[in-house]
Amino acid sequence: MNQSIKPGDNPDLTEERLSGTFDTNSMAAVIYGSDKLAQRRREISEAVSRIPELQDSKPCPFMTREEKILEGSRKSAILNRLLPGLIDLDSFEETVFIHQEVIGIEGHPLALHESLFIPPIATQGTDEQQKKWLGRAQRREIIGCYAQTELGHGSNLRALETTATFDISSQEFILNSPTITSLKWWPGALGKSANWSIVIANLIVHDKNHGPHPFMVQLRDEKSHEPLPGITVGDIGPKMAFNGADNGFLGFENYRIPRENMLMRHSKVTPDGGYIRPPHAKIGYSGMVRVRSRMAAEQGLFLAHALTIAVRYSAIRRQGYLEDRSREVKVLDYQTQQHRLFPSIARAYAFIFCGFETIRLYDQLLIDVQNGNTSGMADLHALTSGLKSVVTHQTGEGIEQARMACGGHGYSMASYISEIYGVAIGGCTYEGENMVMLLQLARYLVKSIEMIQNGKSKNLGPMVAYLAANESEIDLNLGPNEYLKVFQYAARSQAWRATEKFQKLRNSGMSKEQAWNQASVELTRASRLHTRLYIMSTFINHVGSVVDQKIKKVLIDLLNVHITYEVMDIGIYVQGLLSSDQMDLIRNQLYVSLETIRPNAVSLVDSFQISDMQLRSVLGRRDGNVYENLFKWAKSCPLNDKDVLESVTKYLKPMMDKSKL
Ligand SMILES: CCCCCCCC/C=C\CCCCC/C=C/C(=O)SCCNC(=O)CCNC(=O)[C@H](O)C(C)(C)COP(=O)(O)OP(=O)(O)OC[C@H]1O[C@@H](n2cnc3c(N)ncnc32)[C@H](O)[C@@H]1OP(=O)(O)O
Ligand SMILES: Cc1cc2nc3c(=O)[nH]c(=O)nc-3n(C[C@H](O)[C@H](O)[C@H](O)COP(=O)(O)OP(=O)(O)OC[C@H]3O[C@@H](n4cnc5c(N)ncnc54)[C@H](O)[C@@H]3O)c2cc1C
């Protein structure tokens, strides 16, 4: 049963919900990993809806940037007071969720505090450092951010210019931004809100540069909030979206911090200037790996937001005719609309499933690393590098298709899809620009193939074992596992093609760097296919583990949409394996699976359980009463406060009057 049905709803949406074949609360339990977690989300939404001071003071699209930042801060402060009664304070998921619900996706002063400030202290700080700062940060006595990127350097961390030079005589580090390009640029909440930051700076001891390391740095006075002497800080200005966040710039001029402010769980500087190396050279990058490991689920949810809006709206929007000329048809009945939206629903489910898997893998790695075992770091770095790149790109594509699927109203901020798009595609850039991260995964794939070439296939990890197989024929009695083999063929042949291109260029005498650059488009293609294969196999495994038979049946239907769409999408890579008859068969299976999923489309998006407050979309309202609310929304636009604006009295009217003479 669809749990969203209520009296007074748009009858078209109710009809859709009645046609659903499964219980949406049970599906939510599968999406969020357990009945308890799905129920907690419902309870938190419900509790928030009953607290007047947590409601939006006006629709976000009508707010100026200053109002957005003020509103985010107002709500953050209220939440901090109310949180103990509303959520499990130890749960990161609940903390993120309630902020999302109350403040939305446009950013807020604590967005980075939870995800990039507290985790490095907790994982890279010593016990004493944690004792000193963790409690204060968790109680929000201080607000923090993560300052790594510089005006001139983001992707290439080796070129960061900020320095932290150890001064033995005073037992302090002296922070400096030696050039304009070394100014920290982009950190969220740095601009106006944060008073502390994790700063990534080159550690210099006895004139030797040990590369980027993390430091705890106070930026502003804790009483006056004024920048401390030696600190230059401010906001970088408006962005494409995410304007409730104050991304900032930061410069240091001989700014001193105590030796104890370098996060020293892994690397250390001793009082006499000795440097102790970390157990793995890239352990300082693990804060980024943590965020990347969470991005597939986050992005899947961004896509889920846009699809909830587009699918619900498509069920109430009637336009044109099919057979019955007496009533216009729901646009959701057009095959083109289904082809535009349903593969994205499948992807959203796939991203969320695989996102929760990578969060689990990261949590396991964290335990291993704390126990001194860093052997899994390279695997997870490769996996999350590829995953963040593919998922953010496909999420952006899916959201944009969702916008277009809503026709003209999709272009209005009342749909809110443009904001979702703007925030989500930031993910193509932050936490590592997508091409750069695909090339990180490519290094791993090339190394894996070199192992095969050197007769060491048995040392390959399970995620790359397929690179050594030799599939040349597919039985087209196609079930998911045969589709997986088709995808493995595509990913394998592209990985070999790219590696061989690189090796050929090397053998022709080209430098490693030039050869890599000349092969890089092919290498990124290999990384994408490898990642899409991983997403597909995780989806298949996940569906296989579902116990509730009604839920399993729908998920198999959704999986069929996914695997047929994905294979059609990579057709060019499987030409050597599949005949044109086989491709036709798959194409037809895709069209059949679109029809099969159609009656469950609304229930599948309802199962994401995104409340109206969180969705902030007139088009995507749960009750489907879109037209009357669009009219209300337009009337409430500040431009309509007056009938005659100054733009008219001051310019247009005089112009028209003058023209009359
Ligand atoms: C509705 C949904 C709800 C959602 C709720 C949440 C909403 C949130 C929305 C918005 C929030 C926005 C928040 C944005 C926050 C953004 C923060 C940031 O962006 S922080 C800055 C991030 N910066 C980067 O990511 C920089 C990218 N660059 C790098 O990471 C590195 O420079 C590099 C590209 C990895 C290269 O590093 P380096 O030059 O040092 O190394 P290489 O020579 O290339 O490689 C040497 C070997 O090291 C391996 N390596 C590299 N990194 C790692 C690692 N992390 N772990 C393990 N190994 C690593 C590399 O693979 C090489 O190995 P070999 O090939 O030699 O074996
Ligand atoms: C919304 C948002 C929030 C952010 N928040 C933070 C934050 O809180 N803290 C923080 O420190 N930073 C933050 N950032 C910065 C972000 O991490 C960087 O912008 C990102 O890492 C990309 O680096 P860049 O800007 O230097 O891109 P560039 O590296 O300059 O990329 C420009 C182009 O060059 C290409 N390119 C670069 N290197 C290579 C290469 N080796 N091979 C092939 N192509 C290459 C890229 O693919 C891209 O096409 C944020 C950014 C955004 C957009």
UniProtKB/TrEMBL annotation:
Span of domain Acyl-CoA oxidase C-alpha1: 285-446
Gene3D superfamilies from the UniProt entry: Acyl-CoA dehydrogenase/oxidase, N-terminal domain (1.10.540.10), Butyryl-CoA Dehydrogenase, subunit A, domain 2 (2.40.110.10), Butyryl-CoA Dehydrogenase, subunit A, domain 3 (1.20.140.10)
GO MF term set: acyl-CoA oxidase activity; ATP binding; FAD binding; fatty acid binding
Domain (Acyl-coenzyme A oxidase N-terminal): residue spans on this chain: 23-143
Protein residues bound to FAD: 149, 188
Keywords: ATP-binding, FAD, Fatty acid metabolism, Flavoprotein, Lipid metabolism, Nucleotide-binding, Oxidoreductase, Peroxisome
Catalytic center residues: 431 (proton acceptor)
Pfam families: ACOX (PF01756), ACOX_C_alpha1 (PF22924), Acyl-CoA_ox_N (PF14749)
GO cellular component assignments: peroxisome
Occurrences of domain Acyl-CoA oxidase C-terminal (ranges): 480-656
Keyword presence, ATP-binding: yes
Cofactor or coenzyme needed: FAD
Keyword Electron transport: no
GO biological process, one term: ascaroside biosynthetic process
Family from the record: Belongs to the acyl-CoA oxidase family.
Name under which the protein is recorded: Acyl-coenzyme A oxidase
Protein source organism: Caenorhabditis nigoni
